[in-house]
Design a protein that fits this description.
Layout: E1 10-11, E2 14-16, E3 19-21, E4 28-33, E5 38-44, H1 48-65, H2 70-86, H3 88-99, H4 103-120, H5 123-126, E6 131-136, E7 139-147, E8 150-154, H6 162-173, E9 177-181, H7 188-199, E10 207-209, H8 214-222, E11 226-232, H9 235-247, E12 251-255, E13 260-264, H10 270-282, E14 292-298, H11 301-312, H12 334-350, E15 353-356, E16 373-376, H13 383-386, E17 393-399, H14 402-411, E18 414-415, E19 417-421, H15 425-434, E20 439-442, E21 458-459, E22 462-463, H16 470-476, E23 478-486
Parallel strand pairs: 1-5, 8-9, 8-11, 9-10, 11-12, 13-14, 13-19, 14-17, 16-17, 19-20
Antiparallel strand pairs: 2-3, 4-5, 6-7, 7-23, 12-22, 15-16, 18-21
Helix pairs in contact: 1-8, 2-4, 2-7, 3-4, 4-6, 6-16, 10-11
This protein binds nicotinamide-adenine-dinucleotide.
Length: 503
């Protein structure tokens, strides 16, 4: 959709060379407050030419930044960490105003992003290489990791702060310049981050924000001076980014969509499991890549689980994200809300039991709201099971045995996160060992790894071989180099260095 900025609508800028820069393409995309449905902003969609100009600035900044000392870099990261911490309430409000998630969730994503900045402050330690003295007679070998140059991050709407921080904290700590192409649906948080980086002392041009759609993304993927692309978004786009980026010789990590299952065993603590599943399925209106969207009920646990979840749903307050006590906000756009509602209808038509119907609830009159839906008796052939819905819909699939549940999860093409609920350590251990999913929770519904591990799914949830952030992030944003050195014996020098000629 393209609009022209007008009264009451903020014209959002790019961030190039340490300052705001208006878009020049004449093309924009509308930004809404999802809680009211009102357009609040217009984000410019960059042309390939604008991308090229921004990348030129980043190339020149990268040359200086790569030579900055490790203590300079960690100093900037420490300052950035402090600013982010101090200003997190302001940033949370921006996130809520364009994404719609409740303020507590927005603060939560900032806190999880902040962890990545804290990890990156340890860059002097993280970039230490290895050293082998006397690998051969008189020969020493050592390794180092060097920055790539200019790297790009392309990010989704659902975590407009956390996901950029997954990428840029490590990329910048490692000595690269970072060009962010945030989601055009909630672009303002990225400009706030840019201002904090500047205030923290990051040289101009090391952090750039360019807004845009496919044209801007393609220009980044094709640009000779972009060495690597870090992407998070839906599976079809992740695959496309991976294929086009790697065809152009770039290093690419592309994280895709998800269909995360919870396996609930008959011995599970049902109240604990229901609390966890409700929060993980409906938090942020289900618009989380680690949201639980399928509960696999094993043996006779299905009835108790469905009862416990359905009893909790009416207690969730669905309201504007900045309203006190709100548990769940609106969806990102009216189109997405309608798409999710259509899935509920499809599920009912296909034979699922609609235990709680999100289309029939008392909701705020304006905005892109949809209530919570619980579907029981879902089967793997149904569209509601196969597709990533990315909304407040939980499907319950009933199976007879642990093995049937495990096989179901392993047969799914998505493999981002999963969780098991049980009191049995042996069952949990077998699950963690045999489940073919990248991130596993044991009585933990959203097992997003802490920043000193790395985040990533398997199969259609990740294209590339490197997970995001943590140690794998440091590897992704650096290239290894190994030096093998031999020095002439000073005793053989013709110049008198004050060494004895013999030892
Ligand atoms: P999306 O794939 O539509 O967009 C992601 C980014 O790609 C945006 O910056 C967008 O502008 C760009 N883009 C969109 N269409 C494009 C095209 N045709 N060509 C080039 N670029 C394009 O994803 P979204 O709707 O913003 O985010 C939700 C999706 O992201 C869900 O599928 C969710 O599971 C996934 N996600 C995954 C993770 C993870 O860690 N695996 C984390 C967050 C979100």
């Amino acid at each position: 959709m393209t609009t022209t900025p007008s009264a009451g609508i903020t014209a959002i800028d790019h961030w190039i060379s340490g300052r705001r820069a208006p878009g020049a393409s004449g093309r924009t995309s509308p930004v809404f407050d999802p809680a009211t449905g009102v357009q609040t902003g217009a984000v410019p969609l960059a042309t390939a030419g604008e991308i090229d100009e921004a990348v030129k600035v980043a190339v020149s900044a990268a040359a200086g930044w790569r030579n900055s000392s490790l203590s300079t870099r960690s100093g900037v990261l420490f300052a950035f960490r402090e600013l982010l911490h101090q200003r997190s309430d302001d940033l949370a409000e921006i996130v809520t105003s364009e994404h719609g998630k409740v303020l507590g969730d927005a603060a939560g994503e900032i806190a999880r992003g902040l962890e990545n900045v804290e990890f990156a402050t340890g860059v002097p330690q993280l970039l230490k290489g290895g050293f082998s003295e006397q690998a051969s007679t008189g020969v020493d070998v050592y390794s180092m990791r060097q920055p790539l140059g200019v790297v790009a991050g392309i990010t989704p709407f659902n975590f407009p702060v956390m996901v950029p921080l997954w990428m840029c904290a490590n990329a910048i700590a490692c000595g690269n310049a970072f060009v962010l192409k945030p989601s055009e649906k909630d672009p303002s948080a990225s400009l706030f981050l840019a201002e904090l980086w500047k205030e923290a002392g990051l040289p101009d041009g090391v952090f750039t924000v360019v807004h845009g759609d496919k044209e801007a993304v393609d220009a980044l993927l094709d640009h000779d001076d972009i060495a690597a692309v870090s992407f998070v978004g839906s599976t079809p786009i992740a695959k496309y980014i991976y294929e086009r980026g790697t065809a152009n010789g770039k290093r690419v990590q592309a994280l895709g969509g998800a269909k995360n299952h919870a396996l609930v065993l008959p011995d599970a603590d049902i109240d604990m499991a229901a609390d966890a599943i409700v929060s993980a399925a409906y938090g942020a209106a289900g618009e989380r890549c680690m949201a639980l969207s399928v509960a696999v009920a094993v043996g006779g646990v299905g009835d108790d689980l469905v009862a416990a979840v359905s009893e909790r749903l009416p207690k969730l307050k669905i309201a504007a994200g900045n309203e006190p006590g709100a548990d769940m906000g609106p969806l990102i756009t009216s189109e997405h809300r309608d798409k999710v509602a259509a899935y509920v209808a499809q599920g009912a038509e296909a034979g699922a039991t609609v235990v709680v119907d999100g289309r029939d609830q008392q909701l705020p009159a304006d905005g892109f709201f949809l209530g919570t839906t619980l579907l029981d008796d879902v089967t793997p052939d149904m569209t509601v099971y196969r597709d990533e819905i990315f909304g407040p819909v939980l499907s319950v699939v009933r199976v007879d045995t642990f093995d049937q549940g495990l096989d179901l999860i392993n047969a799914n093409p998505y493999a981002n996160g999963t969780a098991i609920f049980t009191r049995d350590g042996g069952a949990a251990r077998r699950f963690q060992n045999e489940v073919q999913v990248g991130m596993v929770g044991i009585n933990v519904p959203i097992p997003v790894p802490v920043a000193y591990y790395s985040f990533g799914g398997w199969k259609d949830s990740l294209f590339g071989d490197t997970h995001m952030y943590g140690p794998e992030g440091i590897n992704f944003f650096t290239r290894g180099k190994v030096v093998t050195q031999r020095w002439p014996d000073p005793a053989t020098s013709s110049v008198d260095l004050g060494f004895p000629r013999t030892r």
